[in-house]
Amino acid sequence: MAKMSYREALTETLHQEMANDENVIVMGEDVVGGTGSAGGPEAIGGVFGVTGGLFGKFGAERVIDMPISEAGIAGTAAGAALAGKRPVAEIMFSDFIGLCMDQLMNQAAKFRYMFGGKATCPMVLRTTYGAGMQAASQHSQSPHPMVTAIPGLKVAMPSTAADAKGLLTTAIRDDDPVIFFEHKTLYGLQGDVPEGDYLVPFGKARIVSEGNDCTLVATGRMVSFCEDAANALSADGITCDIIDPRTTSPLDEDAILDSVEKTGRLIVVDETPPRCSFAADVAALAASEVFSSLKAPIKTVTGPHSPVPFAKELETAFLPSPVKIKTVIEQTVNFS
Amino acid sequence: MQLAREELEQAYRQMKTIREFEDHLHREIAKGTIGGFTHLYGGQEAIAVGVCENLRDTDYITSTHRGHGHCIAKGCDVNGMMKELYGRADGLCKGKGGSMHVADMDVGMLGANGIVGGGPPLATGAALAAKLDGKGGVALSFGGDGSCNQGPVFESMNIAAILNLPSIYVYENNRYSEHTGASYVIASESIASRVEGFGIHTVKANGFDFFEVHEVMKELIAKCREGNGPCAVEFETTRFYGHFEGDPQNYRGPDEVKNDRENNDCVKIFRSKVTEAGLLSDEDLDKIDNEVINLIETSAEEAAAAPAPSPEEVTTDVYVSY
């Protein structure tokens, strides 16, 4: 084990996988940073610093600064993947996925199916998401439900430094296209990360904590919010299962359903608006599969049906919080 | 015309195969035998064949919604394609793709494409892969005049230019972006003049003449293989059928298609050129015609009789593993 940040775990993984397989290439806006400018290449190594040092080690052929052309980046990655490469493309903010949606939803996601199982598109699209930095409506969204809804794509959302490494390694070696969501407030999060080759399988949830009274399902930053809420209730004798699915596609349905059968209560926490959301999807799954186990209505804690606002007070009002989650746990456990 | 006899026969056979394939579909779709949305390539054969006769199996192409001609020219199996069009279990894509998604990775055919402008970004990526592989491979996208108005196409050409990729952008200007005049929807003087703005070497050529297409592409593809960066071509052409099968084509001039069929039919032009030059005789060409007509008839009979996919196939091939 090595102590490192979520960011460092991602950087280490990119270095390891580029060294392991010469077909792995990295491309995106400013992933080198400074190409074509007076300061020379590798001025920044990505706006969040994740791709730092790659250019120096692997060179301009495999670490490619791209123009601000999200559709072009996603399409170039998809085409290179069809032709045998393993591109890791970066879309700086997941809000910009709107610009490249055709290449994701109509091209990469569907090649294998449309072409009768004879094509593979082993690309990873890394992107940042989430509110909490006052980045306002176009730099704070969490569009994972949109891509989770698309058959053919896989979706990973690490919540710890160890999972950042384990899930990214799996994503790069996976033969299907993967959308990899990095929460921008988690880059500095420290954790113990296994050294060397470390893979976390897709579709296998992390059981964050075990309890008896309520099941909490959350991904990314919301996992630690759930832990804080549950910890605040442990003195009252209320204990919770906290489940981090790690990947929303494939989804570890068994882990969620087994837990709900045990606790009889479910709260899903997600920082997106509620309509057609991941939270609504998990709630519907439990309602249809383990209805007879339920002792209380299923609840979701999500953002409201609004864009993410700028002002600190408004952004706080938008986001789920440990306090909001704690209140909903209490209501659910006390339901009668 | 420096092509050997076998090359001329092969070119004619390919053009004629596309023509017969499309004419067959036109008849069958009118009868209701084949479902879905189909866009026929008839009239443009000289381009697909003139381009692809210069490519290797290891080179890549991306195609369009009007893609059957590109598929045949790049070497997709005609029987497999026919079965795909009929939605059969052993179609080239197991009946899951249909007309707009015919593909064959084994011959570098990265797919017809239902999205106008969907292919050029993919060809750009395939060109990046070819460049990294360093074996002189190229990637080429076919697109119509409509695709030149899509933003991702602009992005791709710019990316190819800055990265000096071995990619080739072929624009087949058949005068209509679906049903709307290309001269109206394209603000620049031509597609070629616009593409030049990306710093890409671009030529305009006559797409009715196989020999001109072949000659132009031979030179461009050779330069591209040598690492001279991307290039583009705008070919003038026509389509004999509508945007889609069922299109009433009331937006076309009264004698426009008739005139094109009489004077701008690339198959007829090829025939008269090779016979006048004494390179191939009418008998040689008639023999190929008969072989092709036979091939299409047999392939259609087999496709009509072939089994449909089983319902369980609806959820296979979504992922490699899930």
Describe this structure in words.
- Chain A is an alpha/beta fold and 336 residues long.
- Chain A has two domains: 2-193, Thiamin diphosphate (ThDP)-binding fold, Pyr/PP domains (Rossmann fold, 3-Layer(aba) Sandwich); 206-333, Rossmann fold, CATH 3.40.50.
- Chain A is 35% helix and 18% strand.
- Chain A has helices at residues 6-20, 54-58, 70-82, 101-108, 111-114, 144-148, 161-173, 221-234, 253-263, 278-289, 312-318, 322-333; strands at residues 2-5, 24-28, 63-65, 86-91, 124-129, 154-156, 178-183, 190-193, 206-209, 214-218, 240-244, 247-249, 266-269, 299-301.
- In chain A, the strands form three sheets. Chain A has a seven-stranded mixed sheet, with helices on both faces.
- In chain A, α1 (6-20) runs parallel beside α7.
- Chain A is globular.
- Chain B is of the alpha/beta class and 322 residues long.
- Chain B has one domain (5-32, 42-305): Rossmann fold, CATH 3.40.50.970.
- In chain B, the strands form two sheets. Chain B has a five-stranded parallel sheet with strand order 1-2-3-7-6, with helices on both faces.
- The longest helix of chain B is centred in the N-terminal third of the chain and has 27 residues, at 5-31.
- At the A-B interface, α3, α4 and α5 of A face α5 and α6 of B.
> What's the mean pLDDT score of chain A?
97
Shape of chain B: globular
Oligomer state equals: heterodimer
CATH topology term of chain B: Rossmann fold
Can you say what the CATH homologous superfamily of chain B is? Thiamin diphosphate (ThDP)-binding fold, Pyr/PP domains
Residue windows where pLDDT falls under 50 for at least 5 positions of chain A: none
Radius of gyration of chain A: 20 Å
Number of helices of chain B: 12
Largest sheet of chain A: 7 strands, mixed
Most extensive chain-chain interface = A-B, 46 and 50 residues
Major sheet summary line of chain B = 5 strands, parallel
Number of helices of chain A: 12
Q: Could you name the CATH topology of the largest domain in chain A?
A: Rossmann fold
Rg of chain B computed from alpha carbons, rounded to a whole number of angstroms: 19 Å
The ordered H/E elements of chain A are EHEHEHEHHEHEHEEEEHEEHEHEHH
In the CATH classification, which architecture of chain B applies?
3-Layer(aba) Sandwich
Overall average pLDDT of chain B: 97
Number of β-strand runs of chain A: 14
